[in-house]
Specification:
Layout (H helix, E strand, L loop, with lengths): L2 H4 L2 E5 L5 H12 L3 H7 L4 H21 L3 E7 L2 E10 L10 H11 L1 H17 L5 E9 L8 H14 L6 E6 L5 H6 L3 E8 L2 E9 L5
Parallel strand pairs: 4-5
Antiparallel strand pairs: 1-2, 2-3, 3-4, 5-7, 6-7
Helix pairs in contact: 2-4, 4-5, 5-6
Length: 212
């Protein structure tokens, strides 16, 4: 992607008006994600898709309410990519707020909600400190993949991370091996191998360079 092409793209914080499109991008990107299929699928595809939409919608809403970082990758005025970061300033896993639990329970069911919290517990247990961010979602619209947008969006996220004095770095759980290259090429390192439910994956970590 040359410089003249990049001029048409920009990374900016999402607004409330962007959340519906963001949810659609995330739904399509995570439709076949091994973790979500393990956590939400019970043999009925229609019910699975309902649960996935609910899980993404409620998580986006919670991130927005807690003023967490939602970054959009735009081609001119069109939202084509989304990245969502949650920090340990927000209770995670078993510490999730009751209203999040209730909404997730209503949208996905008890067992699915428990699995979502267990995933966060596993990630938090392996983080190198209590000042880390977790990349909850990163996704592109299906038609925009394979064009270099993913690495540009990730670069924008890491640029944000580098500017945060209270963060040590950024973690991400990757359950699809072919996706690991994107993160390794951006400076992430393997932190731990995790098995969450029936899904194996790697917890990767981007450690910020210390400021002078």
């Amino acid at each position: 992607m040359d410089h003249s092409t990049l001029e048409h793209f920009r990374a900016v914080y999402l607004t409330a008006e962007d959340l519906r499109v963001a949810a659609s991008i995330l739904f399509n990107a995570y439709h076949d994600d091994p973790f979500f299929k393990d956590a939400l699928y019970t043999g009925d595809k229609f019910l699975y898709e309902q649960k996935l939409r609910a899980a993404i919608r409620e998580e986006l809403h919670e991130l927005w309410q807690q003023e967490q970082v939602l970054i959009g990758w735009f081609e001119e005025e069109r939202l084509i990519g989304v990245a969502c970061v949650i920090t340990q300033q927000v209770p995670l896993g078993d510490g999730r707020y009751w209203h999040w639990r209730l909404k997730m329970l209503l949208g996905t069911g008890w067992q699915s909600t428990q699995k979502l919290m267990k995933k966060e517990n596993s990630i938090v247990e392996h983080l190198p400190g209590n000042r880390c961010g977790i990349l909850q979602f990163i996704a592109l619209a299906p038609t925009e993949q394979g064009k270099g947008n993913g690495s540009q969006l990730l670069r924008a996220v890491l640029g944000w991370c580098d500017d945060q004095p209270d963060l040590e770095g950024l973690a991400v759980f990757v359950s699809v091996p072919m996706h690991q290259h994107l993160f390794f090429s951006a400076g992430f390192e393997a932190l731990a191998h995790l098995q969450i439910g029936n899904v194996d994956g790697e917890l990767l970590f981007y450690r910020k360079e210390p400021h002078e």
